[in-house]
Specification:
It is built from two helices and six strands. It is α/β, with parallel strands linked by helices and about 120 residues long. InterPro entries: Macrophage_inhib_fac, Tautomerase/MIF_sf.
């Protein structure tokens, strides 16, 4: 159910993306309170992006979930995901935005239907 879509201007060649995907999956599952089996992580690199007028390493993310999000959880997710991006991709925490979207089950398709 939770889907974290991350885009960055950092090139991912030579980067252990499996480690990023694994850590992000377990982090989202734990903090949102959903099984890892339902967590999706999308990581796109080399995306043309600028932040504050520069093309230094930056990232943008959107996390959509059916429930499990609230101000406290969102703050923890923001800290955890920005830490992953900083340690694994050298994206400073100050150059990352994360948008949270809590949606109804009828707005989330899966397995040829909705939840």
């Amino acid at each position: 159910m939770p889907c974290l879509n991350l885009s960055t201007n950092v090139k991912l060649e030579g980067v252990d993306t499996s480690a990023i995907l694994s850590e992000a999956t377990s982090t989202v599952a734990k903090l949102v309170g959903k099984p890892e089996a339902y967590v999706m992580i999308v990581l796109k690199g080399s995306v043309p992006m600028s932040f504050g007028g520069t093309e230094q390493p930056t990232a943008y993310g959107e996390l959509v979930s059916i429930g499990g999000l609230n101000p406290d959880v969102n703050k923890k997710l923001s800290a955890a995901i920005s830490n992953i991006l900083e340690t694994k991709l050298n994206v400073p925490k100050s150059r990352f935005f994360l948008k949270f979207c809590d949606t109804k089950s009828s707005n989330f398709g899966w397995n040829g239907s909705t939840f």
